[in-house]
Amino acid sequence: MELPIYHTLAEKKKQGKKSFAVLIDPDKVNTSVLDDLIHLSQEANVDYFLVGGSLVISNHLDECVQQIKKSCEIPVILFPGSPSQVSKYADALLYLSLISGRNPELLIGQHVVSAPFVKKSGLEIMPTGYIVVDGGAPTTVSYISNAAPVPSDKNEIAMCTAMAGEMLGMKLIYMDAGSGAKRPITETMIKAVAEHIEVPLIVGGGIIQPEKAYLNCKAGADVIVVGNAIEKDASLIKEMSDAVHSVAVVTG
Question: For FRET with 244, which of 31, 108, 204, 225 sits at 20 to 30 Å CA-CA?
């Protein structure tokens, strides 16, 4: 089965190229807000849209994805908070397994329930080891998952968790401090993880300044995801994207 988005991510990692993704929560946008985000993202050369959230209590996930697909060529990747957050109109799905927690429902239980629907969706499925890191504030994902995050200063726990995820066959590792985190994941933790895995590393949560996005990439992140900060100030899209894309490609 062809996996065009994953192959692109893996190829970019080999080349040292960094990517920027705008996270859109369908609960927090209407048609006009989404139009603005799409326009700004096109102008800023955003690489991906991630669509989803921990809850998604509205029922317009499909409409949100369709609006993006009709308006631009930026790939849409689903970032689901539950098995119901699947839209056949997207390009790919992060099939998240919460490997930092000990809740069997989010390691495999919900995947068993969602598997037939996901299989039928026709989406590109990207198995993703999801690691929640303590961002200094209770997050929806920690509450919903009933799982403690990795302490922010325990680099070795994050590193070993990511290594285990990769060896279990995860194609991506996603480290997340959570929406609205008071403190983002440290560069030292990102570096520790990046140096011990070969699959692409996604980092998000609490990134509110372009400089932090840049430093995360320098530390080893391959994809930077920003959502909350952009909800508050959409003009950050250009600055964030420029910062991520300015990281020099390592050659040799």
Answer: 31
Here the tokens at position 113 are: 């329930």
pLDDT in tens, 36-47: 999 999 999 999
147's tokens: 């799982």
For the chain, the farthest-separated pair of C-alpha atoms sits apart, in whole angstroms, at: 49
- The per-residue pLDDT for range 121-171, each reduced to its tens digit, is 999 999 999 999 999 988 777 777 888 899 999 999 999 999 999 999 999
Which domains, ranges and CATH numbers included, belong to the chain?
4-243 (3.20.20.390)
Six token digits for residue 181: 């985190």
pTM of the model: 0.96
> Is-contact 109 145, C-beta < 8 A?
no
Separation between Cα atoms, residue 34 and residue 214, nearest integer Å: 25
Rounded Cα gap, residues 230 and 208, in angstroms: 8
